[in-house]
Design brief:
The protein has a single domain (27-318), classed as Farnesyl Diphosphate Synthase, CATH 1.10.600. The protein is 63% helix and 1% strand. The protein has helices at 37-53, 62-72, 79-90, 95-116, 133-137, 139-158, 165-179, 184-193, 201-226, 231-258, 261-264, 277-281, 283-301, 309-318; strands at residues 126-127, 130-131. The protein has 325 residues and is mostly helical. α2 (62-72) packs across α6, α3 runs antiparallel to α14 and α8 packs antiparallel against α9 (201-226). Strands 1-2 form a two-stranded antiparallel ribbon. A hairpin with a 2-residue loop joins β1 and β2. It contains 14 helices and two strands; from the N terminus they run ααααββαααααααααα. It is globular. Bound molecules: 3-methylbut-3-enyl trihydrogen diphosphate (2 copies) and magnesium ion (MG) (3 copies). One magnesium ion is lined by residues 116, 122, 124, 270.
Length: 325
């Protein structure tokens, strides 16, 4: 049984910019996500590459570049690039290509978080243990940093020499589809303005597939395409990651009602009044839904035709206690 936390813990500063405190490492079940020791070195590789892929923070306009670094280099779990890299490795794909493909997705993800936190969206004050970008840099710079990160993502894939030109073009097309109105942007629109359509767990899953699932699918798919997967195996890989994304967002919605802001390293109580799986069916039903999605993810992973032990360990660390062999 779950115990719901009381009222919202974090209050947004009325005074504009909160100064960032020391970057707190993520600590919840979702946030501890990547506590798998094997993933630690890989996460450092991702973070070093992310920093190199951006213009330096002092380059003019310095405020914008500083905001991009601030949000991107904050202590996120890096789940999407790790999923991309570990998938590519499972099929013997190039690390060089998968690292940049995964970093591009992390840039898109971070861009989406900056927007998600804006006053006109979720109105959040804490992200990755730091003041949200708009509180730190002001709304105009935060929006521009999001646009700049999003566009840098396309630039990174376009310029990656280890990707054959045909594959590069396909990945760019998939990225555009996944971020646009039929993907993440469409999901966020429904999340903010389409509550009347959210009447049961399936409709919530449909929304979550767009706002969150697409980047999980894209991360695994990029890794899969880089290691040469196609046909049925690629379709199974996409199913695996789609269910992972649905389980992840449902777990995030549970964290929103059960964890403290300190443990989550971001605002909690954000979903009050919103028709999430928890609001519609309760914590135990949401918990069962997470298990169901992970069961389907596991079954699909078994059809991918590659050695998945490392990938499974990683997923196990993300879904601590939920992912059972
Ligand atoms: C947060 O994603 C947004 C959701 C899809 C729930 P993460 O929990 O992966 O956030 P970071 O990247 O670790 O900050
Ligand atoms: C956001 O979902 C998913 C995105 C596409 C950014 P949430 O609004 O629940 O994410 P958090 O809880 O703020 O990280
Ligand atoms: Mg949101
Ligand atoms: Mg939010
Ligand atoms: Mg949330």
């Amino acid at each position: 049984m779950f115990r719901e936390r009381g009222s919202k813990v974090v209050r947004r500063s009325e005074q504009g910019a909160l100064r960032a405190g020391p970057a707190a490492p993520p600590t919840t079940a979702v946030a501890a996500a990547a506590s798998d020791p094997g993933a630690g070195a890989l996460r450092r590789l991702v973070e070093e590459r992310l920093a190199k892929l951006l213009p330096g923070p002092a380059e003019a306009p310095a405020r914008l570049h500083e905001a991009m670094h601030y949000s991107l280099m904050a202590p996120g779990k890096r789940l999407r690039p790790l999923l991309c890299l570990l998938t590519a490795r499972a099929g013997g794909g190039s690390d060089e290509a998968a690292l940049d493909a995964g970093c591009a997705i992390e840039m898109v993800h971070t861009a989406s978080l900056i927007l998600d936190d804006l006053p006109s969206m979720d109105d959040a004050s804490l992200r990755r243990g730091r003041a949200t970008a708009h509180l730190q840099f002001g709304e105009s710079t935060a929006i521009l940093a999001s646009i700049a990160l999003l566009n840098r993502a396309y630039g990174v894939i376009s310029a990656q020499p280890a990707l054959a030109p045909g594959l590069r073009a396909e990945l760019l097309e998939r990225l555009a589809d996944s971020v646009g109105s039929r993907g993440l942007a469409g999901g966020q629109e429904r999340d903010l303005n389409g509550w009347s359509e959210l009447t049961d767990l399936d409709s919530v899953d449909d929304l979550n597939a767009l706002k969150t699932g697409v980047l999980f699918v894209l991360s695994a798919e990029f890794g899969g395409r880089i290691c040469g997967l196609d046909g049925e195996a690629l379709a199974a890989l996409r199913r695996f990651a789609g269910h992972l994304g649905l389980a992840f967002q449902t777990l995030d919605d549970l964290v929103d009602v059960t964890a403290s802001a300190e443990a989550a390293a971001k605002d909690v109580g954000q979903d009050a009044g919103k028709p999430t799986a928890i609001a519609l069916a309760g914590c135990d039903a949401a918990d069962a839904r997470i298990r169901q999605h992970l069961g389907e993810a596991r079954a699909a992973l078994g059809l991918c035709g590659f050695e998945s032990a490392t990938l499974e360990r990683f997923v196990g660390s993300v879904f601590n206690g939920y992912w059972r062999p």
